[in-house]
Design goal:
This protein has helices spanning about 1-10, 30-45, 50-85. By secondary structure, it is mainly α.
């Protein structure tokens, strides 16, 4: 019990962040969901359509980020070497 309290007391969220460097990309989905929820909560006229609108916008955000990542990869790996050869 004392060991648990000492471990919890030593954790400082902003100074000792949780190491999730292997799974950082999975945070895109909840972040996109909450952004879509906040935006659509203000913009949708009828709240009956809110869940569908939020899901559509979440999907659009995630697919857009994947497309931007792919475009950046293609640009850096294939186009930049053609422009500035070694």
């Amino acid at each position: 019990m004392v060991l648990l309290l000492s471990l919890a007391a030593g954790y400082r969220p902003f100074l000792d962040p949780i190491n999730i460097s292997r799974y950082w990309f999975l945070l895109l989905i909840p972040m996109a969901f909450f952004i879509a929820l906040a935006y659509k909560a203000v913009r949708v006229l009828d709240t009956k359509h809110l869940p569908r609108e939020v899901l559509v916008m979440t999907t659009q955000i995630v697919l857009g980020m994947i497309a931007l990542g792919l475009a950046s990869y293609l640009f850096v790996q294939h186009l930049v070497p053609l422009i500035a050869p070694k």
